[in-house]
Amino acid sequence: LRLSEKGCGFGMDEKLGKLGEFGVIDLFRRMVRPARDWVSTGIGDDCAVLKLGGAERLLVTTDMLVEDVHFLRDGISPSQLGWKSMAVNLSDIAAMGGDPAAAFLALGLTPDIDRTFLNALRDGLLDCASRFGVDLLGGDTVASNGGLVLSLTVLGRASSTEVVTRNGAGPGDVVFVGGGVGDSAAGLHLLLGSPGQIDPADRGQLLKAHLEPQPQVELGRLLARNHLVTAMIDVSDGVLQDLGHLCEESQVGADLLADQLPVSGAVRRLALSAGRDPLDWALSGGEDYVLLFCVPSDREAEAIRLCEKELEIQVVPIGTIGKERRIRVRRDGVWTRPEELGYDHFRR
Ligand SMILES: [Mg+2]
């Protein structure tokens, strides 16, 4: 999650820039050995998974939005900011196949924030929460000297047989996305002052994708309940990078068919007008918050049919998992490595 179209927000500090977001996570992950036997999954997935009584599993995730790093105060309305802060966390619960239940909000407030702003922020956040059956149960409020900060922690539940982690993908599995990719990055491009010409309907669609993402909670539940997926993640960092995370955890690789990525007409039209490559936004833009998941090849047709029938969602096969631990991308019939296309999906 980041504001700039390139880089992960660590670029300003040379030392952190070298370490990168995932280097920082690794720094902790390497030293953490859970002391309790109730930890089923710890650092390194979309949620932590804790064993409760019997087959019940508790899912926990946390995500923070920081002003001028993840959002500009005049680029998003307070109610959209509230919605988005909840939605990005619910997307992580969805990525585990879970049912979100409760949220805790930590707020760092700057002195210029007034009651009107807070009311709207609250309404957007509670709107998203109630849409997905989530209760806000607590939090913390502090003063911030830097910028506005919202950190949300969300709890969810699933049964042990339903929880989907990132590490179950196997060779031959078909890789799917649960919806269009690239809209959010194209929306960010507009917010940052795109030179491209665009009609109002396209503009509305792209901005909405970036500012009011829709977490695929129902899709995650449906796939998990029917034991259709071997591994799952949500697209927050971009298809290439998130597929890379999933492959790393599963110790596999993937062949990605870039031409099969579902890229909307609005994304293509803006890219054409702005002189950009729509597949750049689709492959590495991020913040789409659609699910990316792996299905055993003999259940591919069943997955497509079920999602269409139950949820009217067109899930799209975009590649296959392979044994060799590398990602290849096919564009216009030519296979290349992401690095050759200018992508550094294992940015560390
Ligand atoms: Mg995630």
What does this structure look like?
The chain has 348 residues and is an alpha+beta fold. The chain is 35% helix and 24% strand. The chain contains ten helices and 13 strands. It has a seven-stranded mixed beta sheet with strand order 8-10-7-11-9-12-13, with helices on both faces. The radius of gyration is 19 Å and the shape is globular. The two termini are 15 Å apart. It binds magnesium ion.
Concise summary:
The chain is α+β, with helices and mostly antiparallel strands. The chain is built from 10 helices and 13 strands.
Low-confidence stretches: 6-12
Shape: globular
Q: How far from one another are the termini?
A: 15 Å
Helix and strand element order = HEEEHEHEEEHHHEHEHHEHEEE
**Radius of gyration from the CA trace?**
19 Å
Structural class: alpha+beta
Q: Which strands sit side by side, in order, in the main sheet?
A: 8-10-7-11-9-12-13
- Number of E-type strands: 13
